């Protein structure tokens, strides 16, 4: 089992990073492999809409996203985390998500017929962490929903969402008991979902189904 955590903030000791690491803890405690990715460490250009990926499910742009595609495909679950930047995800997170367009598959004759590659592979699970400075949920705008909708389109089922409000200074999430607890619980729920999947699979093979 492998879990991929993707941080869309450039503040490595910031709130998104702090909460992401808390969400990954339940996996580490169960000796499950995790990979923490700070998008700022990767050179990821924007999707240019060339549609060159549609036959092969591979993006033709040769940049650091090519290092992340295998990580995405190998992971059983993904956690996306982004600060609210003007009511939406950060530009780094947007570029990352857009570059996952190669995993969107459309019927050639009827583009209203489509699926995420993960659906063809049998479904995967995800969690989302959204962070903002203001106190009201509406002030984070579409940050969480933007990640949720994109993950769902890619064939992930999002089982937990953390919306951490009123966090501004880098790392002050560490002192926010509720945000830290929410992040831990999000990780735990994702872990339990994956464990349930394993149990069901074992039961199915035991029953020759
Ligand atoms: C460019 C920019 C835009 C922001 N837009 C919002 C916003 O729309 N709503 C909000 O509540 N906070 C906003 N913030 C504040 C950040 O979401 C907040 O400081 C968050 O804790 C940063 O997360 P980080 O520590 O992971 O980088 C913005 C910050 C920046 C730099």
From TrEMBL:
Query: Which InterPro entries does the UniProt entry name for this protein?
Result: Flavoprotein-like_sf, FMN_Rdtase-like_dom, ISF_SsuE-like
Q: Does the keyword Flavoprotein apply?
A: yes
| Domain NADPH-dependent FMN reductase-like: start-end pairs | 1-135
The Gene Ontology terms for molecular function here are:
oxidoreductase activity
- The domain of life for this entry's organism is Bacteria
SUPFAM superfamilies in the record, alphabetically?
Answer: Flavoproteins
The entry's keywords: Flavoprotein, FMN
Name the chain's protein. Answer: Multimeric flavodoxin WrbA
- Record the organism: Desulfotruncus arcticus DSM 17038
């Amino acid at each position: 089992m492998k879990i991929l955590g993707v941080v869309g903030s450039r503040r490595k000791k910031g709130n998104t990073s702090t909460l992401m690491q808390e969400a990954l803890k339940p996996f580490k405690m169960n000796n499950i492999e995790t990979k923490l990715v700070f998008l700022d460490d990767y050179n990821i250009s924007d999707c240019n809409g060339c549609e060159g990926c549609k036959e092969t499910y591979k993006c033709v742009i040769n940049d650091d996203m090519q290092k992340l595609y295998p990580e995405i495909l190998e992971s059983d679950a993904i956690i996306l985390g982004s600060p609210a930047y003007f009511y939406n995800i950060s530009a780094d997170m947007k570029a990352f998500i857009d570059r996952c367009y190669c995993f969107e598959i459309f019927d050639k004759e009827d583009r209203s017929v489509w699926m995420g590659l993960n659906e063809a592979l049998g479904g995967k699970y995800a969690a989302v962490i959204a962070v903002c400075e203001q106190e009201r949920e509406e002030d984070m705008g579409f940050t969480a929903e933007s990640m949720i909708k994109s993950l769902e389109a890619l064939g992930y089922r999002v089982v937990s969402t953390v919306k951490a409000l009123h966090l501004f200074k880098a790392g002050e999430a560490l002192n926010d008991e509720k945000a830290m607890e929410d992040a831990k619980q999000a990780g735990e729920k994702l872990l339990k979902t994956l464990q349930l999947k394993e149990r069901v699979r074992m039961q199915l093979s035991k029953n020759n189904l």
